[in-house]
Amino acid sequence: MSVLEIILVVTATVIGMEFFAWWAHKYIMHGWGWGWHRDHHEPHDNVLEKNDLFGVVFAGFAISLFIIGALWSPLLWWIGVGITIYGMIYAFIHDGLVHQRYFRWVPKRGYAKRLVQAHKLHHATIGKEGGVSFGFVFARDPAKLKQELKNQRENGIAVVRDAAI
Fold first, then answer.
1. Angstrom distance (rounded) from CA 93 to CA 38
2. What pTM value is reported for the model?
3. N or C: less crowded end of the chain, CB within 10 Å?
4. Residues paired with residue 126 on neighbouring β-strands, in sequence order
């Protein structure tokens, strides 16, 4: 593969992972995978969460692509690189910045603040039903997310903490 092809594959994979992460978060983690994801939405003092098992599973996919790619297909190897880069972005932004698992910094402005606000609004629902902002890197306007949460509460789709909206 040429350098340009590698850059395109890795970039497309990183971008594609945000779409996959949104889908997996909404339909797996807030669906049949809620048993693992629930503790991520509940207060606790544990260093690790059952939710971290999703990262182990996704890392297993990336490792598999590295192995298969090394043996048979460079394309799959570079897709594994893209998934790994997305995992690092997720760990830094979601676990580090948003949930402050690795460092303490509360952004006062800019896109980092928007990410934090959007994810706090994601955590505003009680239980797995309803909710907003299922992606990890792309964050919609918090004002629009608040309105969406308000509508969900009014329509009985989600139980929303009053302080959130």
1. 20
2. 0.89
3. N
4. 159
Task: Encode 2-17: b = buried (16+ Cβ within 10 Å), e = exposed.
Answer: eeeebeebbeebbeeb
SS (H, E, C) the chain: CCHHHHHHHHHHHHHHHHHHHHHHHHHHHHHHCHHHHHHHHCCCCCCCCCCHHHHHHHHHHHHHHHHHHHHCCHHHHHHHHHHHHHHHHHHHHHHHHHCCCCCCCCCCCHHHHHHHHHHHHHCCEECCCCCCCCCCCCCCCHHHHHHHHHHHHHCCCCEECHHHC
Place of tokens 């807030």: 30
- Which amino acid makes up residue 82? G
Q: Which amino acid is at 37?
A: H
Instruction: Check: CB of residue 110 under 8 Å from CB of residue 117.
Output: no
Instruction: Please name the residue that has the structure tokens 């949930």.
Output: 99
User: What tens digit of pLDDT does each residue of 76-130 get?
Assistant: 999 999 999 999 999 999 888 988 888 888 899 999 999 999 999 999 888 889 9
